[in-house]
Each structure stands twice: as structure tokens, then as C-alpha cells.
Amino acid sequence: MNSAQADAYLRRIGAERPAGPTADVLRELHVRHLRTVPFENLSIHLGEEIVLEEERLLDKVVGARRGGFCYELNGAFAALLTKLGFEVTLLAGRVFQEDGRPGIPYDHLALRVRTAGGGDWLADVGFGAHSHFPLALAEAGEQGDPGGTFQVVEAGVRTGGEETSGEGAGECGDLDVLRDGKPQYRLEVRPRELGDFVTGAWWHSTSPVSHFGRSLVCSRLTEDGGRITLSGRRLTVTAPDGGKEVTELGTDEEVLTAYRERFGFRLGRVPEVRGS
After folding, report:
1. Torsion angle, CA of 216/220/225/226, rounded to 10 degrees?
2. What angle do CA 160, 161, 167 make, to 5 degrees?
3. Are 253 and 261 in contact (CB under 8 A)?
4. How many whole angstroms separate alpha carbon 219 and alpha carbon 204?
């Protein structure tokens, strides 16, 4: 990423060029990213190729003002943070399923970010509804956030010291990320490269088992800490207190207008769930 691309990215998320790679700067960039760049899987259903290369990600997120899912959003954000002087490490994660088991390898991409002064943070702008701000990796206790109460703990250890075993137990050094006491995903601490996640992105884009292939989603944080989500033709506005306003959009034009006015990008046609 060159300086002009970094400046364009900062304009995309409504941020000024920071003076240095501090924790406060990381917090500001993180929440601005969540408010402006949507978590969305529309490429899967529009027949668009997902390419995990820096230039292609910047073309999509900055040039086309689109969003993406974890590999794209955290991949692009990593490039920006690195250009701004942060020390960034890509981490592979496995998202916990409803039955409590972790998903496929390279199921998720998150970031370990080291700021000036040596603090290590978990940054994740690609998980949908999650923490609004980065989480301190060295803090095993509860961390309050507008998105909930979070913990980053040794894999297999739950709130109160309860442990899991068998398939749910992690390898030495793995970390579990909990939200309101419920495990969200398991992180390996070994550094990864963006290309390592190609198989995971392909699986989520093509497998009939992946939830990304079975549904449409486009969602972002709102300025007041709520959320706006367009799932197919259902537009849901969630207030910070959890109250919801749901609108069923009847026409293609209403759907396309919602993408344009609510999420800031134009589509040539309404995406439909693959195979529907």
C-alpha cells in the first residue's frame, strides 16, 4: 500500500492521517471501520470472485466502497494499519458452532496489533456483531465494550475456570474469545500470511454447508452504537438498547436503494441466494 492508497482508505472510513500508531488511534480506526465498511457476503451471490490479494481488496473496499467478510475486511485493515506504522500479525481462527465445536481450519481471520509502547490488541472488523473496540490480549479478565462483555482466555477455559475437553480443547497457546460468557471463536497464535486463508475463503464461498452460501447479509455499526442489517429483502435497524425496527422491501428498486443509501455502494442487480 502506498501513501495515496492509505489516504484514500482513511477518507473511506472518515479518519484523518494519525500522528502515530497508538492505542487510541487504533480504537478510533477500528470503530470508524465498523461504522463505514459493511460486513457482507454479496460477492458470493453475485458471482464475483473473491481474491485475497492486497490490491484487489483495496479495489473492492476503497475503490468500489464495498465491504466483505473476515478475510477481506481484516486483510484490508491489516494493510492500512501496517502502512500507518502498527505491527500487525494475521491470526487464524475457528468459529464455534451451535454444538460447541470449532469450525474448519482458517475459518476466520483476525489481527494481533502491537501499538507504540508495546501493547498487544485483538483487532477484528470482520466478524459482524462483535466488539466495537480492540480487545487487550494481555487482559484475561472481563473487558467491557458497547458490543458486550468480552474475555480473551486460554483455549478450553471458560468463565469461572471451567474447562472443556476432547475436540473443544485447544492446542497449547490457543486463545478463546468469549462474548457475554459464550465462546465466539478460537485463535491460533502462530503468525499467518493472507494467502494461507485462500482455502477457507473458497470453502465459505462454495460449500453448501457454509452459512455464507445459504443466506445474504450486509451489516454495519451505526453512529449511535446500534446496527443496520439488510438480509435479502429484510431491513433491520437495531437500536443500542436492542429494540428493532424491521421493514420488508417489496421491490428490487427498494433493495438497491437501501444498499445505496444505507451502505454507500451501488449494485447493478439485486443479489439472490445462490441456487434459489
Report:
1. -30
2. 120
3. no
4. 18
- The tens digit of pLDDT for each residue in 142-199 reads 999 999 999 999 997 654 444 443 344 445 589 999 999 999 999 999 999 999 999 9
pLDDT in tens, 39-51: 999 999 999 999 9
Q: Is the dihedral of CA 244, 245, 251, 256 positive or negative?
A: negative
Buried b vs exposed e over 124-142: b needs ≥16 C-beta within 10 Å? bbbbbbbbbbbbbbeeeee
pTM score above 0.85: yes
3-state secondary structure of 216: coil
What is the rounded CA–CA span in Å between residue 155 and residue 52? Answer: 28
Report the alpha-carbon distance of residue 150 to residue 219 in Å, rounded: 21
Q: In this predicted structure, what is the pLDDT of residue 160?
A: 47
Q: Is the pLDDT of residue 246 over 60?
A: yes
Beta strands in 32-165 (DSSP E): 39-40, 87-95, 108-114, 120-123, 135-136, 143-145, 148-154
